[in-house]
Write a structure and sequence with these properties.
- By secondary structure, the chain is α+β, with helices and mostly antiparallel strands.
- Helices cover about 10% and strands about 25% of the residues.
- It has a single domain, classed as Cupredoxins -  blue copper proteins (Immunoglobulin-like, Sandwich), CATH 2.60.40.
- The chain is globular.
- The N terminus is likely disordered.
């Protein structure tokens, strides 16, 4: 099955200020000085200045208040096929960092009942953690400006952080794997109250695997909330039903 490469933007260079509201306004509070979740980039390595792995413990009170009072997304089940028959086939989507670019590598399509495995092939000490989050097509940040504001209220990256139970005071998450609807990969979320299936990973070599239970004929859109230019899409196909051989 053909592989499709998605994403492709380079990590922002260290020292470039991001307007992300979860970023500390104090330039001294960078991840190089204050590691979060064990991420301390080495010299001359790309340093991604993003909220989920660079939150300062000195964040302004307005930030803590904004995240604390934000309503948690309600769990709304999306269309899915409960108890889909396993096909015995496994497809894989990997998180990659090559030639200065972060991206997903994955298939163009999967079949209902396939195992879909997500693999983190990146070094968190170099570029930080990732999420693999199913979101609606309309929730994807499609422009540089949209990606820059992805962690503002009513935008998908902040919503995903809330799905995972991110605590801005402790800088920890409480739910590495969010299951939002029917069992398996089935449910896409948005920024206005609907959770989606999502996985948070902060270790190289980590994997998660679930059956695809989304409705045949649908498409699953996904992104990394930490690096929102990492996006992808996979179509969901109906299983092939073998026809009985006619007898003479």
């Amino acid at each position: 099955m053909a592989l499709r490469v998605t994403g492709g933007e380079k990590p922002r260079k260290s020292g470039i200020r991001d307007s992300n509201p979860l970023q500390s306004p104090d330039r001294r509070n960078t991840v190089a000085r204050r590691p979060v979740w064990g991420w301390a980039p080495t010299d001359r390595k790309p340093q991604e200045r993003h909220a989920l792995h660079k939150l300062s413990r000195r964040a302004p009170r307005a930030l803590v208040l904004a995240v604390s009072v934000a309503a948690l997304a309600l769990c709304v089940a999306g269309p899915g096929i409960a108890g889909a028959a396993p096909t015995g086939n496994t497809e894989t989507i990997t998180m990659e960092f090559a030639k200065g670019k972060m991206k997903f590598d994955g298939p163009n399509s999967v079949t209902v009942g396939d195992k879909l495995e997500i693999v983190n092939n990146t070094d968190p000490k170099q570029i930080g953690p990732h999420t693999f989050s199913l979101v609606t097509q309309g929730a994807l940040p499609k422009t540089p400006q949209a990606r820059k504001g992805c962690f503002t209220p009513k935008h998908i990256c902040l919503a995903i952080a809330q799905w995972h139970g991110f605590n801005p005071k402790t800088e920890k998450i409480s739910k590495p794997l969010v299951k939002a609807g029917a069992a398996g990969w089935s449910t896409m979320g948005n920024a206005t109250g609907k959770k989606g299936d999502s996985w948070f990973t902060e270790k190289k070599g980590e994997t998660v695997s679930q059956e695809v239970t989304a409705a045949p004929g649908s498409s699953l859109y996904y992104l990394c909330a930490v690096h929102p230019w990492m996006q992808g899409k996979v179509g969901v196909e109906a299983p092939i039903v073998s026809q009985p051989t006619p007898t003479s």
